[in-house]
Design a protein that fits this description.
The structure is a single chain. The protein has 259 residues and is an alpha/beta fold. Helices cover 30% and strands 27% of the residues. The chain is built from seven helices and twelve strands. Helix 5 runs parallel beside helix 6.
């Protein structure tokens, strides 16, 4: 059973220092709108969403299929641009930035974790973790150092030479988390990060994310599972392209609710 690398009772989040930027919220979304063409019709995936996320928050995003939560996450991740409204990340207006600017923001400020781990099968764990730094032009010696520190921080310091096929699902997700953190982002976006994992491994991954959040990392996580949402401090519920709820999580049976 894997455990996060703990020092002083918490994961070694100090391996990923970030500037919390004072009292300004990390995310400010006002009247966000995104419409798609579906045949002859126009469908409002987001219909005037307004949200503020403070630095260091842990947010869960929930809602049925087609509710707008995935579109919301894509906009937050600078993977999609809204038709209207405002999106400010770390004080910067990124809602209508050009593609090159959005790519730079993603590389500098955002880490991504997905349900499918998206690891390259021929590369070792360390080489997979190094990839964002390769794209960012980081020198090789620094890439190696930071990748090793990232893997150590997620409890895989002795697995750096293993390829994905030699790792369990939980270990592969830890590699993916290390890769998301290695550029020291301000924001971690996690899209169903436990969807392919069993219940025991889900708990391990969520405890790791909780420890990283306690170290100061802002996390926004999409999930269908109340037990996963219970680790967050706040749950945004989407329905029909609108924000239908914004509240602390309800205690879920069997969930290790942070305390």
């Amino acid at each position: 059973m894997l455990r996060p690398n703990r020092r002083g009772g918490a994961v070694a989040a100090s391996a990923f220092p970030s500037d919390l930027g004072g009292g300004e919220p990390l995310i400010v979304v006002r009247d966000l709108r995104r419409t798609y063409a579906v045949g002859p019709d126009r469908v409002a995936a987001l219909a005037g969403v307004s949200v503020t996320v403070e630095r260091g928050a842990f947010i869960a995003v929930m809602g049925p299929s087609g509710s707008g939560k995935s579109t919301f996450m894509n906009v937050l991740g600078c993977l999609d641009r809204p038709d209207g409204g405002e999106y400010r990340l770390d004080g910067e207006d990124v809602g209508h930035a050009d593609p090159d600017s959005l790519a730079a923001v993603r590389n500098r400020k955002i880490g991504f974790v997905f349900q499918s781990f998206h690891l390259l099968p021929r590369l070792t764990a360390r080489a997979n973790v190094e990839l964002p730094m390769v794209y960012g032009g980081i020198p090789r010696a620094e890439r190696v150092r930071r990748a090793a520190a990232a893997l150590e921080a997620v409890g895989l310091g002795d697995r750096w030479h293993h390829r994905p096929a030699q790792l369990s699902g939980g270990q592969q997700q830890r590699v993916a988390i290390a890769r998301a953190l290695v550029n020291r982002p301000l924001l971690l976006l996690a899209d169903e990060p436990t969807g392919a994992l069993d219940s025991r491994t889900t708990r391990e991954i969520m405890e790791l994310l909780r420890d990283l959040n306690r170290g100061g990392l802002t996390i926004v996580l999409v999930t269908h599972e109340a037990e996963v949402a219970a680790y967050a401090g706040r749950v945004l519920t989407f329905r029909d392209g609108r924000l239908a709820g914004d509240a602390p999580p309800a205690d879920a049976a069997g969930a290790a609710v942070p305390g």
